[in-house]
From TrEMBL:
Transmembrane stretches, start-end: none
Organism of provenance: Elysia marginata
InterPro entries recorded: RNaseH_sf, Transposase-MT_Hybrid
Highest taxon listed in the record's lineage: Eukaryota
Comp. bias (Basic and acidic residues): 78-92
Name of this protein: Histone-lysine n-methyltransferase setmar-like protein
Region: Disordered, residue numbers: 78-105
A GO MF term: nucleic acid binding
Amino acid sequence: MTSFELKKWRVIKLGGVTRSEERKMASSMDLRLKQKAVIEFLTAEGCSPIEIYSRMKAVYGEMCLDVSIVRRWTRRSREENPSESTVHDQARTGRPLSASDSKHQSRVDQLIREIRRVKQIDISIEIGISQERVHHIITNLLGYRKVSARWVPRMLTPQMKLQRVQICRELLAKFDEDGEDFLRQIVTGDESWVHH
């Protein structure tokens, strides 16, 4: 059994990772930055990618970057001006990191309030974000759940609370009018939520 298979077995068998492995994973980004700096330095000295890889492998062992990554970073380092290069990643254009921003949340909430039976895929197409993000916004951020093919809030909204108060006042007024006869008409039981 290789060390990778042993670690994989340990993670599956024990249901997690050890503290030392957690520390290694937490510092893996720092380690990548350090190795990138080493690659840039040794490239500036004129070392070949294979030589850089073998020297790094002697120091970092199993945590060393793959030889293909060393070659790629060496090539990039040679193309860049050493005084202008940085080991940190540059800002990238393209899709934002998160589609769960407040703009998308309010738009999803608006669509659900307009059409309670709206499907996630329809929301996804309308807004232009993935179904996974739509599901995350609906269930985790807005607190809705699906009941009889309709999206309903998990928590009482101010509108629902006001409606409950109004119904209680109506029932109290009927009790004042009918007295004991009104109480005989009531069937009691556990609390249930009725969504319509």
